[in-house]
Amino acid sequence: MNEPQFDPTTMRDVSIPISDLLRPALALSFVLLIVPVIPYFLMWGFPDSWKFGIGEVLLTFLGLALLVVAHEAVHALGWMIFGGVPISGIRFGIDKKSLSPYAHARVPMQATGYRIGAALPLIITGILPTLIGTLIGHGWLVFLGAFMIMGAVGDLLILWAIRHVPGDARVLDHPSNAGCYVLDNEST
Predict the structure, then answer these.
(1) 149 within domain boundaries
(2) In a domain, 107, yes or no
(3) How far is CA 66 from CA 59, 107, 125, in A?
(4) 134 CB neighbour count, 10 Å cutoff
């Protein structure tokens, strides 16, 4: 399917080049990895020893790989459900420069649906596993959730970048930057 054609010169670009995200994302990523594990340590204490055999390491990498795929799938589902984007309007890939996986909505939607789709992976693959792991005392689940919260740093920066876009404005996911184009003239 050919990607819909829109004239970017007639739209307001509310996006951040991926290369410009590196500096703010690095510091924020560290905070987002550490802060979620603090409640776990306060409730359950610091483990006496870390027992990581090859099985645990492989299971961790498998869990992280599956959660990264789930993160992008949740973006797509959010845009489909809350933004009305058809499955044919979603493209998945890996950015060659940053090696970042992505889900890209190729059709316009309301900004509210775009925001929900951007935030859902943080909640579903990050916050929920961290909360569940903390409540049941499962450190591995807390680690995976904290890692996924850290992995949502780009999504959080997108949400910050589009914070002034009205919820009913029509937006188009930017094909290469983090953010979107605003299609409606009245939403500038």
Answers:
(1) yes
(2) yes
(3) 10, 26, 10
(4) 23
What is the DSSP code string of 44-58?
H---S-----HHHHH
The one-letter amino acid code at 161 reads A
Number of domains in the chain: 1
- Boundaries of domain holding 102: 29-45+53-187
170 sits in which H/E element: strand 170-173
Q: Compute the distance between CA of residue 160 and CA of residue 39 in angstroms, rounded to an integer.
A: 26
What would the pLDDT profile of 80-122 be if each residue is shown by its tens digit? 999 999 999 999 998 887 777 899 999 999 999 999 999 999 9
9 occurs within a structural domain = no
12 close to 188: Cβ distance less than 8 angstroms: yes
Residue 14 resides in a domain: no
pTM above 0.85, yes or no: yes
